[in-house]
Structures are given as C-alpha cells and as structure tokens.
Amino acid sequence: MEQIRALYLLTGFLMIWGVAIVVLLTGWQKSTQMVSTVPKFRIGSKRYKDIRIVQHVLQEQINNGTDGTIKADLELLTHSELLRKITNLGPGGTWRPPNCTAHAQHRVAIVIPCRGREEHLRILLQHLHPFLQRQQLDYRIYVVEQAYQGIFSKGQLLNTAFLTAVSQGNYSCVIFHDVDMIPLNDNNRYDCPEQPRRQWEGIDYKGNGKYRTPYDGHAGGVLAISIEHFKRINGYPNAYFGWGSEDNDFSRRITGHGLNLTTQSLDVAKYRMIEHKRDALNRINPRRVRLLDTAKQRFETDGLNSLHTKVLTQEDRGLYTWLLVEVEKEKIEEKKMIRSGAKRTRSQNTIELFLFITYCVVVFQ
After folding, report:
1. Catalytic machinery residues
2. Average pLDDT of the segment spanning 198-223
C-alpha cells in the first residue's frame, strides 16, 4: 500500500509540474510578443504572410526606378566637417527658402530623440538638411536627449521637445524622426498633412535593397502631425519607461480622437536603417501590456497636460538645437527596482503555491 500511495503522490507531483511548465511558457510567449495585433505585411491593399514575397515585390518596384531616388551615403563625417559642408543654416539648425513668402508653404519642426547615437545623428543630418531644403521647407531641427542615463522615457522627451518648439516658432506641424532612419526619395514629402501621416512604408535594414513593411497601425519611426492634432490627442503618453508600446499607445490616441493614420505610396516612402545594437540601459518595459490595455482611459489625463519635465540645457549646435531634458526621475528610480523580468503575475503566484503544497504533501507523508 505504501508503494502504491507513493506512486500516486509522485504521479500527481509530476502532473502539477507539467501544468506549471506549460502555463509559464504560455505566459512568457505572451509577454514577449508584440502588444498590438499580429504584424500583417502589406503592399497597398494586398496582404502577405511571407516577408520574402513582400521583399520580392518591393524589389521589382524599386528596379523599375522612380524620380527622386536618393542613395544612402553612410560616410561618417565629423561635426566640424558637416558644418563646413552645410553652410547655409541659420541658428540652431534652421533654414528657410531665400524667397520665404513665395516658396515656404509649411513651417516644420523636426524632433529627433537621441542617446548615445552621435555617429548615427551625424549621418542622418548630412542627408536630412539637403533633403528638407530641396523641398523648400521652412524648418528647424531639435535633438532631444534625456539627462538621466537610465531607462528611457521617449514620450516625455517628445512632449517636451514639442512644447519647446511651439513656444519658439509658429510651426504648422512637427515630424518625430528616429535617428537611424534615412529617407531614400525626394518625393517623400515632409510637409504638413491634413491627417497624421506615417512617413515610411518600407525599411531596408541591411543595405541590400530588401524592404520590410510595417504592420497595420504602426505609428513609430517617422511620423508627421499638425500642431493642432497633436494638442487635440494630448501628445504622447508619459507613463512608458523602457522599450515598447508607446508608439502603439500613440496610434490608438490618433484613431481614438477620430483621426486617421495615413501613409504615402511605397515607391517614395522608403528608408534605409542604420544598423545598431539595442540600448542595453533601456530594458523592455515589463508594464507595457498593462499600460496599453488602459490606453483609452488615459487619453485625457496622461500626456501634454500632465507633463512634469525640465529643460536643463538648450544649446545651438549649428546643425541642430540640442535639448537636455530631465524627466520624472522618481518614476524611473521606481522602475529600476523592477528586476529584468516582468512583475509577478497572479498565475505565477498560483503556480508556486501549487508547487509548495505538492512539496509539503510529498515530504511530510
């Protein structure tokens, strides 16, 4: 009888362990996948499941050739060399057409969040200034950096740069621009859209002419939005610390306020990505799923109207205006206390309780 009883206990113990492992693996997979809908690769109205098909179709379009194509030159120049090369800029990286009244139809503030990517910034600027000038835009480039070198608060930085820009110029719109994305076609208009507009439809990550397309509703990378619309949706959320989901939250703000996230055609909305390693200090945000689930409830309370940051330094660096911003440090310190994994969930606590009970039953019988 004792042997049969021990066999039953061992069998029950193994079954509980099996269930625990399955639940843990399922929870881990859910926490590591994208928060938004599963990416759907598309070209125009057509959707594709296989990225290789998308790459082939895009390559055929590129091979046909279009006017305005730009070659991405990744030559790294020093800051001084760039200043000697681009000599027609005004203070703080400003420029306007010589006959501004006749030609400048849009006044644009370009906002680039940056940390530890000085080389990428210089490569982008040597492309971006001539690109914007060929489009006859009246513009100023702001580069915003976080003072605290812990986890990143992208939303707070972009909101701060936006408020700084509108206080210093009568801009029609703002373009938020990742530092590692180089536009590859002059017909990719950086003017002010009637509706918020994602500027890219294909990214070449390796320089091999193979382009990846975004999933539906993607609002990251490069995005143009009018001053009026950005204020209407209350800007970016401030609550995100670390990598992940603030762009998805921002996309929901756009559609949640009756606006449309528009795009341009694939033949012009192409970019080259500068290869880089992910910022080790900017860990994946363990609260991103929970925050995105409550995005709608926070539209009116988390954003421009709840921003508590401080511009420590504003500096004219010739090619751009540099902003050093202090974000809500106490919240960052709070997040530092969270270990590298996500917060303990109810299911994890329940599983450990089952395992503890099983251990007690086996040991004390």
Report:
1. 178, 180, 243, 246-247, 273, 276, 278
2. 85
